[in-house]
Amino acid sequence: ESRNKYPDPSTIKEELLKKYPPKVAKKRAKAIVINDPEEIPQVQANTRTIPGIITQRGCSYAGCKGVVLGPTRDIVNLVHGPIGCSFYAWLTRRNQTRPDSPEGENYMTYCFSTDMQEEHVVFGGEKKLKQAIQEAYDLFHPKAIGIFSTCPVGLIGDDVHAVSKEMREKLGDCNIFGFSCEGYKGVSQSAGHHIANNQVFKHVVGLDDTDNGGKFKINMLGEYNIGGDAFEIERLLDKCGITLVASFSGNSTINQFENSHTADLNVIMCHRSINYMAEMMETKYGIPWMKVNFIGAESSAKSLRRIARYFEDDELMARVEEVIAEEMPAVDAIISDIYPRTKGKLAMLFVGGSRAHHYQELFAELGMETLSAGYEFGHRDDYEGRKVIPNIKIDADTKNIEELKVTADPDKFKPRRTEEELAKLKAEGLDIREYEGMMPDMKSGSLVIDDISHYESEKLIELYKPDIFCAGIKEKYVVQKMGVPLKQLHSYDYGGPYAGFTGAMNFYKDIDRMVNSRVWKLIQAPWEDVQSELEATYVT
Ligand code: CFM
Ligand code: HCA
Q1: Which of 288, 320, 446, 525 is the residue whose CA sits 20 to 30 A from 480?
Q2: Is 272 touching ligand 2 by the criterion CB < 6 Å?
Q3: 3-state secondary structure of 178
Q4: Is 450 helix (H, G, I), strand (E, B) or coil?
């Protein structure tokens, strides 16, 4: 067993905490747990980062503007704030887009901002915001404009919702809505996801009742088309004869959102960022939701089967089996070539709120083990699983959740599946409410670390020397200077898609190249050059 050559996990945990002042060590100890899949320990998550620790986290504005609304192509995303907030969020996420026609609207490449100056911070920026909305409207005549608040907006009290309403009424044919997603709200991107979900549900979902046909109609939630992942999933759904009504929000349009309540099932890829939408759509329109995972060939097959089972249609189930049988041989051929070179290698994943779990599957398919993993901003259910924490409630990050749960016309929107039908499906082996978190899938003794600090990652790498470390751009070059390759699981570096069967094959090849390149051995890690090491001590 490869992991035997390491000190036991409690010693490693002690090492990670040793340098911290006692109060910090006490807090961090709750976020570093030694996994036991049989008896899942409780992990501290979704709490405020300790000031002074270098976190990987981002802000609420990033979660709202960048993550959830960013990949929608025909909404003008206008940032109300100083230019830096726009500039540093401009095309930094690799969400791909493919407009329906060359003339099709696509505002993704633009950077819309009110360019707030000191004058607006002092005297108020609402007038400037109205001008910016008018200007965007005159230039592009978009179907919709979203307004995103940055920190100063909340501090000076500009009312983006009132401005949105006023301009919506004035312009008449443009849906305008605001997001109070000031960066400081909540403790991470996670609060921004929630705010985005609420406002899109309130102002957009349900506006277009058109039935566009299709026998098996689903929405794909929490899939943002990074590196073209959604295109690969769409290819598979298409092949199976499953109709995608809306995608939240990879390569999406505002009309998809408006029409999304006509679907029969919501399937969720990234539960962390979009569960609120799923819950609200179930309450208001009777659309059940179910967790899927298209990362990994086996998981993709399982997800397609789950969708087919939900519809209880023999033809669909047979078609899904055919598609899997068609796709798998190419995957198996690549695995058998690469496996001997990757087997037994060790990975560590510290990413976001879902990928640090999902990508463990892909590594497992290559015979690689994940020694340690954690989310930046996941919640306890993302770690411990829905089985362990049943009936998790939507967090009350935002106050208006009850008001959003107004019930739609019961004649038009009946539950797509009654409680009895769902119970029957469950008895037959499809529990649509079931999903695993990270920890039930990880080995006993693995270290699960929430909101890992920069110091902790360096120490972990020094102690474990993994064959690959997965994180983001802020970590990439620091880690590589230690002689360990870093795979960005946010942007996929320049690669992808990694979803579905084609994606899995792309991933295997990229990882093979990275972990087997000899270049890493030529780098001298800081701990190998004792001379240059400067011992630092924390102030207590
Ligand atoms: Fe969901 Fe995402 Fe992720 Fe996320 Fe993100 Fe992202 Fe991520 Mo970066 S929505 S939680 S807030 S899967 S942007 S596409 S890669 S941290 S693991
Ligand atoms: C965000 C976006 C991000 C950042 C990625 C990174 C992304 O959190 O605001 O740190 O490399 O996926 O683009 O998560």
Answers
A1: 446
A2: no
A3: strand
A4: coil
Q: Which atom of ligand 2 is nearest to the CA of 56?
A: 10
Which residues carry out catalysis? 59, 62, 93, 193
Q: Answer whether 346 contacts ligand 2 (Cβ < 6 A).
A: no
Quick one: which atom of ligand 2 is closest to the CA of 351? 14
506 CB burial (10 A radius; 0-12, 13-18, 19+): buried
Residue 286 tokens, joined: 């009777």
CB 198 within 8 A of CB 400: yes
32-34 vs 447-449, strand pairing mode? antiparallel
| H helices present in 429-484, as ranges | 454-464, 473-480
Q: What is the 3 state secondary structure string of 329-350?
A: HHHHHHHHHHHHHHCCCEEEEE
Q: CA–CA separation, 301 vs 323, rounded Å?
A: 9
Q: Which atom of ligand 1 is nearest to the CA of 353?
A: 10
65 CB under 6 A from ligand 1? Answer: no
Q: What is the ipTM of this complex?
A: 0.98
| pTM metric for this prediction | 0.96
Digit-coded pLDDT (tens) for 117-131: 999 999 999 999 999
**Interatomic CA distance for residues 156 and 120, integer angstroms:** 9
Residue 467's nearest CA partner among 376, 347, 331, 338 is 347
379 pocket-lining for ligand 1 (C-beta < 6 Å) = no
pLDDT tens per residue across span 128-185:
999 999 999 999 999 999 999 999 999 999 999 999 999 999 999 999 999 999 999 9
